[in-house]
Amino acid sequence: MVQANALFTRPRLDLTKEAAQAFVNSEGLLGQLSGKRVLCLAAGGGQQSAAFAILGAEVTVVDLSPGQLAKDQQAAAHYGTTVRTVQGDMRDLSGLPQSSYDVVWHPYSLNFVPQCAQVFGQVASVIKLGGIYHFMCANPHALGMTESDWTGEGFLMRQPYQAEVKVEQPYQGFVFADPAHGSAVPPSLEYRHTLSSLVNGLVEHGFQIRRLTEVVNEAGHVPYEPGSWDHFTSIVPPWWKFWCRYAPEASVDETSSRAYNQKESRNEMPNT
Ligand SMILES: C[S@@+](CC[C@H](N)C(=O)[O-])C[C@H]1O[C@@H](n2cnc3c(N)ncnc32)[C@H](O)[C@@H]1O
Q1: Where exactly are the structural domains of the chain?
Q2: Are the CB atoms for 182 and 176 separated by under 8 Å?
Q3: What is the mean pLDDT of residues 259-272?
Q4: Which region among 86-90, 119-123, 146-150, 170-174 has the lowest average model confidence (pLDDT)?
Q5: What does each C-alpha distance from 132 to 42, 169, 242, 261 come to in angstroms?
Q6: pTM for the full model?
Q7: Enclosing H/E stretch for 169
Q8: 79 alpha carbon to ligand 1 midpoint, in Å?
Q9: Which of 60, 64, 93, 110 most suits a substitution to test ligand 1, by most atoms within 8 Å of the C-beta?
């Protein structure tokens, strides 16, 4: 993808402090970032790391791809900042300092691994008590669908709703500005994380959900051209953003949560 010059492999070299703030902290939920320890998880490419470094944070980036991490160093050199880059898998963060990060910022990449809870467990091990974990993921109801699923009356859902199932995701304009270019690259393979696997995985690893944002198209191009991307995303938000706080002492008792799930899977009415 780096060689194909996908949009998310292009470093942000145009940031000011204000633009950096708008990029990663527009809602102000992260507070003052100067001096904070920030882990940009599976976030190579020189976008988020550059913004946090400009805002004075102490930044570490973990990514599987050396090509992506080189973009983080390119952006750091451009701004005269320092970022630590670590090649690694988001499913194993044991090489990082434990209980250390004030913020873990995880842009779209959770859907590249089969089990979201495995990643949440790793984030729990490196984040400080009270730290903020922000991640973006696919809306599981929309993963694998595009505007081409338009039938003339609606967008047809054809795929089974199951966690950890591999889904072929065709590339859109948000990956390649020029779709003709993108068609030369095989579609990405992603995994569906159902709503319950996301929420239960977070709760079982000690995270409180503080806010959920659904990235829906409200651009106002109404009436949308039927079957267009704008039309599709006005009906089905393709992405969700979770804001969580690591507060294990406040999370529900794991045993009772498991008992509840077992009852549910036997189709018994759980106590409410
Ligand atoms: C869509 S990009 C997101 C990052 C980018 N900075 C952005 O702004 O969108 C997905 C990133 O996840 C990384 N990635 C995929 N699987 C990974 C894994 N198992 N562990 C760590 N990084 C992974 C890829 O190398 C890529 O840099």
Answers
A1: 7-265
A2: yes
A3: 48
A4: 170-174
A5: 16, 29, 10, 27
A6: 0.90
A7: strand 166-169
A8: 22
A9: 64
Report the pocket of ligand 1 as residue ranges, CB < 6 Å: 8, 42-45, 47-48, 63-65, 68, 89-90, 107-109, 112-113
The residue assigned the tokens 């495995």 is 118
CB 90 within 8 A of CB 109: yes
Count of beta carbons in the 10 Å neighbourhood of residue 83 = 23
Q: Is the pLDDT of residue 62 over 60?
A: yes
Q: Which helix (H) or strand (E) holds 229?
A: helix 229-235
Could you write out the three-class secondary structure of 19-34?
Answer: HHHHHHCCCCCCCCCC
Cβ partners under 8 Å of residue 269, min gap 6: 263
CATH superfamily of 7-265: Vaccinia Virus protein VP39 (3.40.50.150)
67 CA distance to ligand 1 middle (Å): 11
The DSSP H or E segment spanning 191 is strand 188-191
Strands 37-41 vs 101-106: parallel, antiparallel or unpaired:
parallel
pLDDT of residue 20 exceeding 60, the answer is yes
